[in-house]
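job 3f2a | input accepted
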Amino acid sequence: MLKRLATATLFMLALAGCAAAPVRTEPVHGIVMETLQGGVNVSLTSPAGKIGGNGVLFYQRPESFRLSILSPFGQVLMDIIVNGDRILCLRESLKKGWQGEMRDLPDSLGVRVWPLMKWAVEPSQPAGPALERVFTRPDGTFEKVQYDSSGLVRSKVNAFGDEVVYGDYQISGDVAVPTRIGINTPEGSRLQLRLDEPEVNRPIESEIFEPKLEGYEILPLSEFKEF
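job 3f2a | predicted structure (227 res):
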C-alpha cells in the first residue's frame, strides 16, 4: 500500500508543476469539509527541535489525519497517523511502528500541535459586519476569529492561546481552502503546512488511516526518539 501511496504522490507532485487555471477566492459557507488530501510541504518546530519536508496529507472528518513524509525520490520516510487520541508513527524502512495516546507523543513530534488539527479544519462561523468576532464553543470556552474584507478567515485564537493562521485560499469542490496553514502554541511549537492543489470531499480508502501492520515491530510511542 505504501508503494502505491508513493506512486500516487509522485503523480500529484508532477501535476503541481503544470500551469494552474485562474483561482477563485470567494468565501463559501455552509459546506462541510468531509475529506482533504493533497501534496504538502510541512515544517514542525518544537522546543525539542525541528523536522520538515515534502509529503502527502490526508484528512477525514471528524479527526483522522495521515501525514506521509517523502524523500526527494518519492519514498515514504515516515508516516504519522492520527485517529482521535491515538497516534501511530511508522518507519517502513525499519519495519517499525510506535503507537500510543496523544499525550505520549515526544516533544520533537509536536505533542501540543496534532490535537489542534481538528480545530484548525473545523468549518468557521460566517463573517459579520465586524472583521473580528468572538464565539463561544460547545465546551464553554471562547475563540476569537479574524476575517479579511471578503469574509475569509485570516486567523483564530482559542482560550488557551493557541492560534491558527490561514492564507492563500483556493476553491476546491466548492469549498474555500487555505493552502497555507500555520498552527502556533504558547509554549513555542509551530506547524507550518503549505498545501499543493488540495482536493476536498473526495473518497479516501480506509486503509490510509488503518494500515496493515503485518511484519512491523510495534513499540510504545514514548520510545520514539528521532525522525
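job 3f2a | The domain at 2-221 is CATH 2.50.20.10 (outer membrane lipoprotein receptor (LolB), chain A).
job 3f2a | closed
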